[in-house]
Amino acid sequence: MRSIAYQRSTLALLLIATLLASGLARPMPHVAHAADGWTSAQRLTNDKIALFPDIVVDSQNVTHIVYTQTPDFNTSRIVRYINNRGGSWSAPVTLSAPGLFADLGRLSTVTLNGKVYLALVFKAKTGNNSTSRIYCRLYA
Q1: Rounded CA gap, 103 and 66, in Å?
Q2: CA quadruple 102, 103, 108, 114: dihedral positive or negative?
Q3: What is the pLDDT of residue 114?
Q4: CA angle in degrees (0–180, nearest 5) for 129-133-135
Q5: Which partner from 48, 50, 52, 57 sits 20 to 30 angstroms from 11, CA to CA?
Q6: Which letter does DSSP use for residue 39 in this model?
Q7: Alpha carbon of 103 to those of 22, 25, 37, 132: distances in Å?
Q8: Tens digit of pLDDT at every position of the chain (140 positions)
Q9: Dist. CA 132–CA 90, nearest whole Å
């Protein structure tokens, strides 16, 4: 009799093979690659400091990126968002409220009935307050 762990790993491999065979795992769009397999680097942010990026690719093959932007590490920090829905990168959208020292944005995505939903979670504090709060924003 096979162990439960063996049966679970076999089931997981069968599930992955089924997903790949059914076409649910969509191929990435054709992009020119360098000899080492990587595309050439593309600058996505302006001259301000960009920190803590997070990236997800949704079921419609759109790439979503959130990141923290700051002029200098010590003053304000804002959470910004971009995507490549139209084939090129969108202008950045600020998702954190003014006056917050916000960072560490994290994205997640789910598709229900063909509609993509995004969730963003980030931490922030106001002024000299050492207490951070967690904020959440949803997009449908």
Answers
A1: 10
A2: positive
A3: 86
A4: 140
A5: 57
A6: P
A7: 39, 31, 32, 10
A8: 455 545 555 555 444 544 444 444 444 445 555 678 888 888 999 888 999 999 999 999 999 999 999 888 877 889 999 999 999 999 999 998 877 888 889 999 888 888 899 999 988 887 666 778 888 888 87
A9: 29
Q: Which two tokens stand for residue 140?
A: 């449908």
Q: What is the DSSP letter of 38?
A: P
Q: What pLDDT does 8 receive?
A: 54
Rounded CA-CA distance 55/58 in Å is 10
Instruction: Tell how many helices (H) and how many strands (E) occur in the chain.
Output: 1, 7
- HEC profile of 79-92: EEEEECCCCCCCCC
> Whose CA is closest to 87, among 30, 13, 5?
30
By CB neighbour count within 10 A (0-12 exposed, 13-18 middle, 19+ buried), where does 28 fall? exposed
What was the pLDDT predicted at 128?
A: 67
Q: Nearest to residue 117, comparing CAs of 127, 107, 125?
A: 107
Q: Which tokens go with 118?
A: 């995004």
Give me the residue spans of the domains in the chain: 48-140
